[in-house]
Amino acid sequence: MTTTTTTPPSTVTPPSTPLLNRFRVPAGFALGAVLLLGIAPVALSDFRLSLLAKYLCYAIVAVGVSLAWGRGGLMVLGQGVFLGLGGYAMAMHLKLTDAAANGEKLPDFMQLYGSGDALPWWWKPFANPGFALAMTVLLPMAVAAVLGFLVFRRRVKGAYFAILSQALAAALSIWLVGQQATTGGTNGLTDIQGFFGYSLDDPVNQRMVYFVIAAVLLLLMALARQLFVSRYGELLVAVRDSEERVRFLGYNPANIKLVAYVVAAGMAGLAGALFVPAVGIISPALIGIVPSIGFVIGAAVGGRASLVGAVLGAVAVAWAQSTLSDEFPAAWTYLQGLLFVLAVGFLPGGLASLGVVLRRRRTRTGTPATGETA
Amino acid sequence: MTVVLNQSFTGISIGAVLLLIALGLTLTFGQMGVINMAHGEFIMAGAYTTYVLQKSISSAGVSLLVALPLAFLVAGAMGALLEWLLIRRLYTRPLDTLLVTWGVSLMLQQLARDVFGAPNVQTAAPDILTGNISAGSVTFANNRLFILGLALLCVLGLTLILRFTPLGRRIRAVVQNRDLAEVSGIATGQVDRITFFIGSGLAGVAGVALTLVGPIGPTMGTNYIVDAFLVVVVGGIGQLKGAVITAFALGVLQSVLEYSTTVSVAKVVVLVAIVAFLQWRPQGLYTLRTRSLA
Amino acid sequence: MSGEGLTVRDLRVTFDGFTAVDGVDLDIRPGDLRFLIGPNGAGKTTLVDAVTGLVKATGSVRFGGQDLLGKPVQKIARLGIGRTFQTASIFEELTVLQNLDIAAGAGRGVWTMLRRRKDIPEPVARALETTGLTELRDRPAGVLAHGQKQWLEIGMLLVQDVKLLLLDEPVAGMSHEERDATGELLRRVSEDHTVVVIEHDMDFMRSFARSVSVLHAGKVLSEGTVAEVQADAKVQEVYLGRASEPEPEATPTTPVAVTEEA
To answer: Which of A113, B281, C35, C220 has its CA at a distance of 20 to 30 angstroms from the CA of residue B101?
Structure first.
């Protein structure tokens, strides 16, 4: 088969300057590390740094979204659930240690709304820091594993999956609101003072929390990057593009999708756990349908399939949200809506693809003949 | 026994509201595959139409009767406009329509806030709909009966349109084979727009119905939209009967659970029940078996 | 290795009351290059769908000592049955190399999966060679020419290490040169695999088939060598009755085939 009949002239783009390519990723990573760990803490006030810490938590969620949605095509509209599970697991532990530090048996809100003097049985293990920390990641992963297993196994996909995951976010936030005596209800778990023995009122300790969050973000980005370039990452893209075809090659696509979904859930859980000391609160309003869509949209605006794009998009949208919504609430809502419409509708690759789109427009060469039934 | 009957009636009336909302989605989501998050805001548009009408027409009964067709037209026109402006560009990316229409939904909510103010408003119900009818020990609220009747009427109307009119045949043809419909001389773009018009218009009608049982506010649509989508998912994308059965079944389940537990637990249990149901029927209640790959 | 045979007995597939495959018996010997022909709607593709687990069927399909019916798609694939589709179904956003590497990897362990591909696995290199795609290996598969996409699909089956290949209209829409090249490729592949080809193109079938089964209305109408089948009166009748029907896949490039069909 050495026919060259329809082979277009061999214009294979040479792997452009392999040396540069090899160092591009580590260099970018190092640049990010310098910015986050070196420059930001020096350049920003305590207040702004703590805001950045919050945005970086959303960026951690976006890393998972980029994996599950950008690469795997799974529209994860319920990431708030996993952020919530991680956040509540952490907040329960911190509320218990706060109460213990004040010489009280029960967290403050339980004394107000609770029905008795006893701690609910399912709160008890969270007094143990190791258990609580493990739960911040394992609990979201377990929920994702069960739901994902049931849903993917039966080939429920696309829009159906998106709606189910959204319904999950609605159900959890409504459930939390209904359990005021044991979860703080609408208020959530608030007024968290200590973080493993460090007072969160102290700006120095707030900075420490920031460093932990930034380091975790960088670590998870490295992990996600490894997954992207691995054989698994290639397979995940294949499943996104043609699930049936992958099945005919002898793989079970359900398992491939499950891994991405569970990993993304674990990342969101970790983000929730870090969100609590950074912001001092976790509540149903932070994890319901609206914030859950927000996580996906942040990633979409930046570029769902590009790790850096998704992270920057999440940070930018969160920043714009808290900066502009205070000063111009009405104008911001219009702008936000318009941004989503334009970014998702007309720039599906997100802002990360802007350069590529512009370049392609300038040098429109047309794709090689792909046959009539392409 | 009385309790059971009363709860069932409550469930059926919850189901009727769900059905009214889901009916429009069976067209736009079920038939066209578009996840329109702004559907909730079309409900809101219908509700505010009722509110505005009542300010100019003093009789609550007359304004309600005028509101029904008018809300259908207002919401339908908004839907057709949305389809023409955005959605028709996104038919190849159905999941992205979800995000795009979410952006539209945010803007429409803010628009309502700017025009009508953020606080909820209320309309007066006509006298005839404020009472109850008692049958033995069971009481039926008139407004709930009205909504039930309205929902069933809409189902009937939509069925007749889809089954027996040339428009209905065209809609079904486009759904089943877009390319073939196109080469058969059907203007598929136009059919899409009309389908969207009807689906969105039904949301407007649902909005009128909702003014009878609750306040009107900028975010009223978001409370219902996910449940309505679940109705279509569970019902399957085949025919209307899936949505009808599912809406009433979920309504009754919800109401029975709320009675025996709490509202919030009921939500969770309903979702678990839905996931369990999809284990048994992953494509929903009614589907067509075909040879296609997807 | 000369592939594995396939035995089909009384296979039936029904869609909502319509019987697409109606009691088909087939015996395909190891190493055969079998063509399945028949008018549109004869049940050819549905037959392949049933064998590969895509649609539910009754009867029996035996392959390598196992009954395939009721097994999930991926299990059947792992037993050594691979297939292509009428429209080339490759992963358009991945490169040629990535496509082949994925096809070769169903048995990989977790550790291998989580690492980057360091070099080109030997079977993948061989398949690139066989299909003539070595030069294009770093191209996104989506930009390949139509014929090349089909070859890539066949290459994917080769690295998948299947014993039986089921190809659904592999030369539809191909130019004459591509068609001949594909035929040569199939001939080479059938030296150590069993190959079943669904095809409309009679010219192509005459040049490369080792044996032929004619399907009509869900049943096997005739079976044998090319000559035997062509001489069969029943076959002539079916094709005569359909001679006026345009065959969209075959007409533009092979007017010869159409006239000879009649």
So the answer is: B281
| d(C-alpha A221, C-alpha A310), whole Å | 11
Asked if C131 and C146 sit in the same domain, the reply is: yes
Domain boundaries, chain A: 45-288
Q: Is the pLDDT of residue B283 over 90?
A: no
Q: Which domains does chain B have, with CATH numbers?
A: 2-122+137-280 (1.10.3470)
CB distance from B290 to chain C under 8 Å? yes
Burial B273-287 (b: 16+ CB within 10 A, else e): bbbebbeeebbbbbe
The residue in chain B having the minimum alpha-carbon distance to the alpha carbon of residue C86 is B293
- By the 8 A CB rule, do C120 and C175 touch? no
The residue in chain C having the minimum alpha-carbon distance to the alpha carbon of residue B294 is: C54
Q: Note whether C171 and C61 are same-domain residues.
A: yes
Are residues C74 and C121 located together in one domain of the fold?
A: no
Is A12 close to C135, i.e. CB distance below 8 A?
Answer: yes
**Measured between beta carbons, which residues in chain A are less than 8 angstroms from residue C148?**
6-7
Q: Is residue C186 part of a domain?
A: no
Cβ contacts from A onto C, under 8 A: 143
Closest of A133, A145, A143 to residue A87, by C-alpha? A133
The residue range of the domain holding C154 is 90-161
β strands within chain A, DSSP E: 194-195, 198-199
For the segment B234-275, what is each residue's pLDDT rounded down to a tens digit?
A: 988 767 888 999 999 999 998 889 888 888 888 889 998 998
Task: Give how far Cα C118 sits from Cα of A229, C93, C113, C238, Å.
Answer: 11, 20, 12, 54
Q: Are residues C227 and C98 in the same domain?
A: no
Rounded CA gap, A7 and A26, in Å?
A: 37
Whether residues C172 and C247 fall in one domain: yes
- Residue pointed to by tokens 């959204």: A166
What is the Cα–Cα distance from A287 to A174, expressed in whole angstroms?
A: 10
Instruction: Flag whether C128 is in a domain.
Output: yes
Q: With respect to residue C108, please indicate whether it lies within any of the assigned structural domains.
A: yes
Write the ipTM. 0.87
Residues C33 and C7 in one domain: yes
DSSP state of A124: G
> Is residue B98 within 8 angstroms of chain A, CB to CB?
yes
